[in-house]
Amino acid sequence: MKELSSSQIRQMYLDFFEQHGHKIMPSASLVPVDDPTLLWINSGVATMKKYFDGSVVPDNPRMTSSQKSIRTNDIENVGRTARHHTLFEMLGNFSVGDYFKPEAIHWAWELLTGDQWFGFDPDKLYITVYPKDNDAKEQWLDAGVAPDHILAAEDNFWDIGQGPSGPDSEIFYDRGQAMNNVAEDDPENYPGGENERYLEIWNIVFSQFNHTPEGTYEPLPHKNIDTGMGLERLVSVFQHAKTNFETDLFLPIIRATEQLSDGKHYGDNAADDVSFKIIADHARAVTFAIGDGALPSNEGRGYVIRRLIRRAILNGKKLGINEAFLYQLVPVVGKIMQSHYPEVLEQADYIAGVIHSEEDRFNVTLDTGLSLLNDTIAATKAAGNTQLAGTDAFKLFDTYGFPIELTTEYASDEGLGVDQAGFKAAMEEQRQRARNARSSAKSMGVQRALLTDIKTPSQYVGYTQLTVDHAKLMDIIVNEALVDEAKEKNETAELIFDQTPFYAEMGGQVADTGTVLDEDGNEVAEVTDVQHAPNGQNLHTVKLTGTLKKNATYKLIVNQMRHRKIEKNHSATHLLDQSLRNVLGDHTSQAGSLVEPNYLRFDFTHFGQVTQADLRKVEQMVNDQIFAELTVKTVETDLATAKKMGAIAMFSEKYGKTVRVVSMGDFNVEFCGGDHVANTNEIGLFKIVSETGVGAGVRRIEAVTAAEAFDFLNNEEVLLQQTADLVKSQQVKEVPHKVAALQTDIKQLENEQTALQAKMASQQAANAFTNIEEINGAKVIAQAVQVAGMGQLRQLADDWKQSLPSDVLVLATAADGKANLLVAVAPNLVKTGIKAGDLIKAIAPAINGGGGGRPDMAQAGGKNPEGIDTALTQAKHWLVDAIK
């Protein structure tokens, strides 16, 4: 067998299909674009959905890619099995309505066995087919596969619900019995069985049916090919590795981790090997995820990243690594993947910085979590229970990142078990919440064959004119059928003209609206929306007010005032994008946008908060470009020339051979197909309205321009004038001084109130400290007092310490529907083992609360003031048992 590196294998696959007319597609961002059904890009076909469901017709129906992907449904298995990963690469070749089974099967066999290509021994390859798919079986036989190497399998049918589906063929490589984990006579020892001998390396899906909403399977108008070959598995075959981890994709990371560990070596100990594998896998996943704009957080994608980082840290501790280390593996990952993903090394410093910050944060959290775990164990034992509650174990997992295995291990050391069933129930509740929160949008649409088949040429002319006098109506669609005439008033129709000034929604810019007039000047339709048809035409959705006829000519009029406002906001978005990069750093990139007539919304990636000072700088920078009256130029050129111009690719758009580049002076150059002003001075004014966080590492700015910005500032001035009236200021400029004076007055009143409360507390102390009981020879004060809250209770405790009228002090107070408890113990009693923290934990449940503290003083808060008397009584009973 050939000796090939992972980079060579990946490139050979792509080269093979390029030679067979496929376009090599770049690996898309792991963060899905315009797909609410996915948390991550989880396969090669996930990026092809718009082509497979017919919503977009690709330039080339043959495509191939090596797509980075993340799957998180079985993180717990990563490191414990040979081939589970969070991040993996999926090699794939795709046909959208072009070639089908004969070409897909013959090319697959050529790639696998051809001497110029992979050169596998045909005797080591086995194929499975769907029992009813005789066509596939015949094609495999024709390609040269031995009959006894083709097996039928009932589960060889790819179906994810509504949308394209069909039979598939899986290809297995026989690694020999020496690689197997089952006996030679085991019933699972066959291609497709649960064994390590026959390794599935490729799945070829023959997408030939539409799974309809009614649950039927109808023939697809355009049949597709969708294949997936896991690069990590394939590399393990070429490099004779028992698992994926002994390949050049993972071993350099493992070797680097060995250098950071406490003398540990991969292969010496099975438990350590699991930790090495987990770290290697998670280092790759978080590096790529952060590089694609996702950031650690407590929700969504950010939660996945945070969980992976924490799991890696905990496994690092098992290897004796007690300092931040994961960030040091980022350049190692970048070097391994450099041939196909050079951007990882380019962003290595930023990625490492994010990971390092998260590691430092978790090391603090870890200490807190360990403290909570120890308290939970102690409380469980004190209550006489033999196992930790599943809800407690889940809290440790969910809040502090403690894997259930670690909690179980710690509990076992203390002679306790863990309620695994309760933990799993809590986990399932969380998963159900996540499923419910996820969009119910369909994962892949049913093909609209009608639109896919319409290839009528249509030209957008709205860059230079907003009215077309003689636009020929090429196609009319009503109720999913082509018609020659539409005349029902208020009926909805879809129209394609040979030329149009109406912009179709794209890149965040909303669609134009307007009217359609006949040759006599009568309005015949109102344009309410414009979208791109699968073959790129502007598809106008209209509400009929008259009669439309195919091949007739019409006057198309865009709502110019609305369009001009959209132009202003779109150009302002470009200025904002560049200003954010200039102020916050080059790591900042667009994560989405919306350009409406009355406002703009811009989402961007950024780790951490954006300060008010930075926002002011950004806003000022945008306005500086507006006032500088920069000329806005647009040119159409090839992709390479555009990149040499320094043009920034917006979002995750795919660009064709010819691209449109918009430049605003020397300040900003970007790829963009939208509409813009001719000069930045047309924007007039820019004002940020709000800045918020909207997700894991994603911030959102909403802003207004021109008249809306003027109105916003006017409204602000009105509010300021109202404030001036309230503080009795003659001039607006005096408001800050007046407010400062009021704050001084309030502070003085608060100080006086505090002094009065302290005086009242002293009076309470004089009364409380005289009510002394004796319990087993110890003096005890246990009393409810009327003070302002915990602060006043601590003041009473300080007064008590000065004279120590008793050995134990237990105070309680109720205020604003809440209860507070405080316990103090004199030094002489602390020495005998009586601890304030133990007592407070015993009585806090009476007020539905919890707390803790030092041996000499502890406190608790709760939401049940009615339980104060019970708490005081329980305190006395506890002291009877504790003081001997």
TrEMBL record:
Q: What is its main location?
A: cytoplasm
The UniProt keywords, alphabetically, are: Aminoacyl-tRNA synthetase, ATP-binding, Coiled coil, Cytoplasm, Ligase, Metal-binding, Nucleotide-binding, Protein biosynthesis, RNA-binding, tRNA-binding, Zinc
UniProt subcellular location:
Cytoplasm
Question: Has the keyword Ligase been applied to this entry?
Answer: yes
Residues forming the Alanyl-transfer RNA synthetases family profile domain are: 4-715
Name the top EC class.
ligase
- Give cofactor(s), names only: Zn(2+)
Q: Which GO terms describe its molecular function?
A: ligase activity
| Residue positions binding Zn(2+) | 570, 574, 672, 676
Q: How is the cofactor bound, as the UniProt entry phrases it? A: Binds 1 zinc ion per subunit.
Q: Which reactions are catalysed by this chain? A: tRNA(Ala) + L-alanine + ATP = L-alanyl-tRNA(Ala) + AMP + diphosphate
Known EC number:
6.1.1.7
Where is coiled-coil annotated? 732-766
- Read off the Pfam families from this record: DHHA1, tRNA-synt_2c, tRNA_SAD
Q: Does the keyword Metal-binding apply?
A: yes
Domain of life here?
Bacteria
Gene3D superfamilies with a match to the protein in the record: 2.40.30.130, 3.10.310.40, 3.30.54.20, 6.10.250.550, Bira Bifunctional Protein, Domain 2, Threonyl-trna Synthetase, Chain A, domain 2
Stated family? Belongs to the class-II aminoacyl-tRNA synthetase family.
The role this protein plays is: Catalyzes the attachment of alanine to tRNA(Ala) in a two-step reaction: alanine is first activated by ATP to form Ala-AMP and then transferred to the acceptor end of tRNA(Ala). Also edits incorrectly charged Ser-tRNA(Ala) and Gly-tRNA(Ala) via its editing domain.
- Description of its domains: Consists of three domains; the N-terminal catalytic domain, the editing domain and the C-terminal C-Ala domain. The editing domain removes incorrectly charged amino acids, while the C-Ala domain, along with tRNA(Ala), serves as a bridge to cooperatively bring together the editing and aminoacylation centers thus stimulating deacylation of misacylated tRNAs.
Protein name from the UniProt record:
Alanine--tRNA ligase
Its gene is alaS
